[in-house]
Amino acid sequence: MGAIAIVAIVVGSVLLVAIALWAYRVANRLDRLHVRTDLARQALVATLDRRAVVARAIAAALRAREEEDLDALGVQLAVDADRAESEPFAQREAAENEMSLVLSRVSAATKGIIPPPTELIAEMADAQTRVIMARRFYNDAVRDTRALAERRSVRWLRLGGRAPLPDYFEIIERVSA
Q1: Total domain count for the chain?
Q2: Contacts of 84 (CB under 8 A, 6+ apart)
Q3: Assigned domain for 163 exists
Q4: Which among 166, 160, 99 is positioned nearest to 139, based on CA atoms?
Q5: Of 126, 131, 121, the residue nearest 61 (C-alpha)
Q6: Is-contact 85 55, C-beta < 8 A?
Q7: Which of 68, 120, 129, 138 is placed for a possible disulfide with 40 were both Cys, Cβ 3.0 to 4.6 Å?
Q8: How many Cα neighbours within 13 Å face the side chain of 65?
């Protein structure tokens, strides 16, 4: 064996070790991004559930007014809140959008007619703000995970394993009456 062959073997070995370390680092990063996405999804679900609870409280307050149109809105809001909370995460977007639309109709129907309970208004505003923030955190985590997982080298070396790519969660942030 000549000196050139030994140098080629050493360079090849160093290159192989460097590629293996890079692949390990990228696979570890992708795993951490999937964990981050899962935690963000759990936080988003918790904030959506909280918003549904507040919506049901508003629905109960509307039904207590004993006015036909407000009672119907209260019933619709309670039904939408229950449906939104019971849907699996993948199908929850549509249910949340329906609840947002009913909440905007409630806001329009009660404006100037009844004195709204300020604690429920403050609670809903807080819940809406938290939903917006949680959705943005989740979508940021999804964006980062997808950006790394969709790289050609990551796909070719199958560094993501069998983990499915997460999907974005898009809902109406603010609905005006």
Answers
A1: 1
A2: 48, 52, 92, 95, 96, 98, 99
A3: no
A4: 166
A5: 121
A6: no
A7: 138
A8: 22
* Residue 74 maps to a domain: yes
The CATH number given to whatever domain includes residue 119 is 1.20.1440
Cα 47 to the chain's mean position, in Å? 10
For residue 91, give the DSSP letter. G
Coil, helix or strand at residue 123: helix
Distance from CA of residue 156 to its chain's centroid?
Answer: 28
Question: Could you tell me the sign of the dihedral formed by the alpha carbons of 44, 46, 49, 50, in that order?
Answer: negative
What's the pTM? 0.85
Show the tokens assigned to 145. 């995970």
Q: Are 154 and 30 within 8 A, CB to CB?
A: yes
Lookup: tokens for 98: 């329906």
In 3D space, the residue among 93, 100, 90 whose CA is nearest the CA of residue 127 turns out to be 100
How far is 115 from 47, CA to CA, in rounded Å? 27
